[in-house]
Specification:
The chain is an alpha/beta fold and about 450 residues long. Helices cover about 30% and strands about 25% of the residues. It contains 13 helices and 20 strands. The strands form three sheets. Strands 1, 2, 3, 4, 5, 17, 18, 19 and 20 form a nine-stranded mixed beta sheet that branches. The longest helix is centred in the middle third of the chain and has 18 residues. The radius of gyration is 21 Å and the shape is globular. It starts with a strand and ends in a 20-residue tail after the last strand. The relative contact order is 0.18.
């Protein structure tokens, strides 16, 4: 069904809340006009119109941080049911495959995936010493706005040295790529793993993974990345920040005059805490970086409120990653990574209502700023004349119980299964086409496309 108007709602725009109708033409927002003085009452709606009385009309969610290439079609359908209409996924090179070849292969897979939403790509760099400036230019030409570097995982052979970080940031600045960085100090993790293994068993046994990645591991790496980015003049995007100290490092960097710093946290770091690691099923909650104490959770929410944190992603893991290195060698065989592309927006909207975080700010965090950061604004991330009519109709008076299967993402039992949340997503549109109605897929014909990025890296002010 193609929708011509969303009527009677409160539209969440970049300038604030507007009581208005949203008019759609050829898949684009045609206009945002004054709502009729009268309520819909018994009058029949216009052909192709959706009634949003009592609801907020939000831009479709833009998830800046996903790993969905193991099953993009399933992940995309789950995203749509949860109000996300654009997902940006990191690539995952296979053994012997170059980072550039992986990006090109992934682009073809996304284009033919038959996905329900639009999908863009970030290029993960698994061979930091081998990638060249020409490779990075080809990455940009292929439509990616960012590369991702890892300061961890030497056991996988993908860890980037500080010198190479500087060199790749300098190249990326010249090309116009954002540099996303996974900030953990790998040698310190290895030292703590050796100590933990020598100390013997603990309960729950899976906790060793989290205990060997304390906040200082992240905070040291964030400080190093910010210093390196300042020297290189690069735009850096700090993924999945989880600690109070990391957020404070961002504040200090901006106060020192380095504004090209973009900071992200993830829904699970805002909504779960390290109490999960005391549970018998602690392994279900393993993620890197791990869940933190409540004091860190509250510091992240403060960072959302004062605009230190720019974006909230899901870090959706369509396939969990097995532990390797010292832990695996010592018999600690676990898997980490959380699924959450479908639950990100319902959880954030519910928590925002409870905490009094204004919905325009939520829209910035989950839609506008991710789109701006990676070159998709104003086509995506906002409801403005000329933008894609990617729309979420959200009823704040409704109630939702999160499903066991993560909105059908195919990853198994969700850690959020059965959780009640405030509000209900009544409808989701992609370019004016109704793809989700009352939580269920309304049109199973593929509507999504591969999304190449324009100019990236800028946020207002």
């Amino acid at each position: 069904m193609n929708v011509s108007a969303v009527t009677g709602g409160t539209v969440v725009t970049p300038d604030g809340l507007v009581r208005a109708d949203l008019l759609i033409r050829d898949g684009k927002v045609a206009a945002i006009g004054s709502a009729p003085a009268a309520t819909t009452g018994s009058a029949a709606p216009a052909a192709g119109a959706l009634d949003a009385a009592g609801c907020y009309v939000l831009p479709g969610g833009v998830d800046p941080h996903t790993h969905l290439m193991a099953a993009p079609r399933l992940a995309a359908a789950a995203a749509a049911r949860g109000g996300t209409t654009t997902a940006l996924s990191f690539t995952s090179p296979r053994a012997g495959e170059s980072d550039l070849d992986c990006l090109l292969r992934s682009r073809e897979e996304v284009s033919g995936a038959g996905a329900l939403i639009d999908i863009g790509l970030h290029a993960a760099v698994y061979d930091p010493d081998g990638v060249t400036e020409a490779d990075l230019a080809a990455v940009r030409q292929a439509g990616a706005a960012a590369i991702k570097l890892f300061l961890a995982y030497p056991e996988l052979g993908i860890m980037c040295s500080t010198r190479r970080l500087y060199e790749l940031m300098s190249m990326s600045r010249r090309i116009g790529l954002v540099v996303a960085v996974h900030c953990e100090n790998a040698p310190l993790i290895e030292a703590l793993e050796d100590e933990a293994i020598a100390a013997g068993p603990r309960e729950p046994e899976a906790r060793i993974f989290a205990d060997t990645r304390p906040p200082q591991i992240e905070e040291e790496a964030v400080a190093r990345v910010l210093a390196t980015a300042s020297l290189a003049g690069a735009t850096c995007y700090l993924v999945h920040l989880s600690t109070a100290g990391a957020v404070q490092q961002v504040r200090w960097a901006r106060a020192a005059g380095h504004p090209a710093v973009l900071a992200e946290t993830c829904a699970h770091h805002l909504l779960l805490d390290d109490g999960c690691y005391a549970r018998p099923d602690a392994e279900r909650f393993l993620v890197a970086p791990p869940l933190r104490s409540r004091s860190h959770v509250e510091a992240l929410w403060a960072g959302l409120a004062d605009a230190t944190i720019d974006a909230v992603g899901s870090d959706h893991s369509q396939a969990r990653t097995p532990t390797g290195g010292r832990l695996a060698a010592a018999g600690h065989h676990h898997a980490y990574g959380l699924a959450g592309i479908g639950t990100r927006l319902p959880l954030l909207l519910s928590a925002a209502l409870a905490r009094g975080l204004p919905l325009p700010r939520v829209a910035q965090l989950v839609s506008e700023h991710p789109a701006r950061a990676f070159g998709h604004y104003p086509r995506k991330g906002a409801l403005l004349p000329g933008s894609d009519a990617d729309v979420v109709i959200f009823d704040p008076a409704g109630r939702t119980v999160l499903p066991a299967g993560g909105y059908g993402d195919g990853t198994g039992d969700s850690v959020y299964a059965g959780q009640p949340v405030r509000g209900r997503i009544r409808a989701v549109l992609l370019r004016g086409r109704l793809i989700v109605s009352d939580g269920e897929v309304a049109d199973r014909e593929p509507a999504g496309t591969y999304l190449a990025a324009g100019s990236a890296g800028g946020l207002p002010g």
